[in-house]
Input
Amino acid sequence: MVQLVLVFCMIASPSQCTEERPYIDGLSPMSCMVQGQQIAQSWLDTHPRWALSRWRCEKNVPKQRPI
Output
């Protein structure tokens, strides 16, 4: 299973970050890369005080603490 991992940080306080892992059924590595940007933008549209710090597609990796 491939998991999209988005890391967002507060614009006013860049050291405050959160890791979001939206559930997307049947996600392949290619679709993760293609859809990742769109999903991140949708999240940012509803969370204007946050900025996308980084994102990745993982396969069977447990949740990590954002740095």
